[in-house]
Amino acid sequence: MSEDARNIVGPLMLAPLAGYTDKAFRMVARSLGADGAVTEMVSAEGLARGGEKTEGLLERYPGEDRLVMQIFAPSADPVGRCMERLLSHDPSVIDINCGCPVPKVVKTGAGSALMRNPKEIGNIVRTIKSAVAIPVSVKFRLGWDSSSINYIEFAEEAVKAGAGIITLHARTRAQGYSGVADRSAFRILAEHFRGDDVLIYGSGDIFTPEDARSLIEDYGLYGVMFARGAIGNPFIFRQAREYMEKGTFTVPSVQERVETALWHLSLAVSFYGENIACREMRKQLMAYIKGIQGANRAKAGIGRAATLNEMKEVLLSLI
Ligand SMILES: Cc1cc2nc3c(=O)[nH]c(=O)nc-3n(C[C@H](O)[C@H](O)[C@H](O)COP(=O)(O)O)c2cc1C
Questions:
Q1: How many angstroms is it from 85 CA to the middle of ligand 1?
Q2: Does residue 100 have an active-site annotation?
Q3: Domain 254-316 adopts which CATH fold?
Q4: Minimal CA–CA distance to 82: which of 59, 50, 130?
Q5: Domain extents for the chain?
Q6: pLDDT tens-place values along the chain, 319 residues long
Q7: C or N terminus of the chain, fewer CB within 10 Å?
Q8: pTM above 0.70?
Q9: Nearest one of 129, 81, 122 to 98, comparing CA atoms
Q10: Is residue 284 a contact partner of residue 264, using CB atoms and an 8 Å limit?
Q11: CATH-assigned architecture of domain 2-246
């Protein structure tokens, strides 16, 4: 299994980020060295019902391979019902979201609520495995809260059912995205499954090339997922690769940062049209220019700009 999985996913992945990891962001990240990427989370129920917007999240950019498609569901039932639609998009890997802390998702029993129901993750994985031969992956947290840490038991259920890839976001649901990710859990998880046929990824506070190398080389992980660390900074993939190969890495110039932001914006315009792209790209463009001299003025300009030309003018004023 993991031999197959290794041919599909590599150590440096773009994490799933709802509202961010659309095909434009994935194309930029892959061109800068990401080994693969995960879609935004997609509702299994929405997919089963044939929601057009839901299906749109699964579209690829031309030529995109190594695409992990992530679904969320409270149980195996909607997963079984969505398989036909999901498989029509030809996923390289199917990933199950067991980490989302958002109340709207959790109250349905999906996302991190599955951490309280480890048996169900087994049922979900088996449902997918019975429908398709591609690797199944599970992304989960340490537990629901600090008094119910159960990531080892949870991962065991998933792996026993046939998951070949697991990703731990080393925070509890109660922590949301704050607090510090508990790296010691990566070592414990890697140790627990040592010798087993499963690829283990770490997620949580992975912001630098040093973080990536250390987690892979010292903590025994197969790979890492860059999440907030890749927003406005897709160069992190190139840097992590350079650092793992040579022990040093290059820092992008202001010009490269601005030009990459412009390319990302132009991809979004070509995929979604000018109106949607200009609205949706604001937060990402602001992240690209963070810390550059004149960024505060430019951020105000990005906030006001409504057309591609206005956005371009603001960005180009920085170089
Ligand atoms: C805005 C945002 C959206 C996210 N969307 C998803 C998602 O759709 N599916 C998922 O499994 N995790 C999602 N995550 C969690 C990330 O993939 C990652 O596990 C988490 O941010 C921890 O990594 P970091 O501390 O390096 O950001 C999201 C996180 C953020 C901040």
A1: 24
A2: yes
A3: 1.10.1200
A4: 50
A5: 2-246, 254-316
A6: 555 788 788 999 999 999 999 999 999 999 999 999 999 999 999 999 998 889 999 999 999 999 999 999 999 999 999 999 999 999 999 999 999 999 999 999 999 999 999 999 999 999 999 999 999 999 999 999 999 999 999 999 999 999 999 999 999 999 999 999 999 999 999 999 999 999 999 999 999 999 999 999 999 999 999 999 999 999 999 999 999 999 999 999 999 999 999 999 999 999 999 999 999 999 999 999 999 999 999 999 999 999 999 999 999 999 9
A7: C
A8: yes
A9: 122
A10: yes
A11: Alpha-Beta Barrel (3.20)
